[in-house]
UniProtKB/TrEMBL annotation:
It comes from the Bacteria. This is Lipoprotein. InterPro entries: SCO0607-like.
């Protein structure tokens, strides 16, 4: 481009070609990195959640009875109920034998008493109606 100098002489200045900054490509690369980082975070978080809930000793176990209650079972049947610690079992119900009391749903004794019961003499028998 030609411009005039102070003395009126003609001076030509060369314009240097504008170089493209590498910054133009950086935002795209940065957003890809952020996207990968977010995906990685979600995957790692998901794996941690599965590990903690599916394979953990911290598994939730539902109690057979609430606090202040004890479980009882029907005589000659597999029915059960919970009775206040202050009360005796209702008619037709008895306490489970000592050491064979279910504490949590699906624990060893809960499963056992689904197919066994006590007769009127307190003897453990197979439940005749069990599958």
């Amino acid at each position: 481009m030609a411009t005039g100098g102070e003395s009126g002489e003609h001076v030509e200045r060369l314009e240097t070609p504008m170089l493209m900054s590498r910054r133009i490509s950086r935002p795209i690369a940065a957003s890809r990195r952020r996207g990968l980082s977010a995906v990685t975070t979600v995957l790692v978080g998901g794996a941690a959640l599965v590990a903690l809930t599916g394979c953990s000793a911290l598994e939730f176990k539902e109690d057979i009875c609430s606090g202040g209650e004890y479980p009882v079972m029907t005589v000659n049947g597999t029915g059960s109920a919970c009775v206040s610690d202050d009360d005796k079992p209702p008619s037709g119900y008895v306490r489970y034998p000592e050491g064979k009391v279910p504490k949590h749903v699906d624990d060893k004794w809960d499963v056992y008493w689904r197919t066994h019961t006590l007769d009127e003499n307190g003897k453990i028998i197979d439940d005749p109606d069990a599958p």
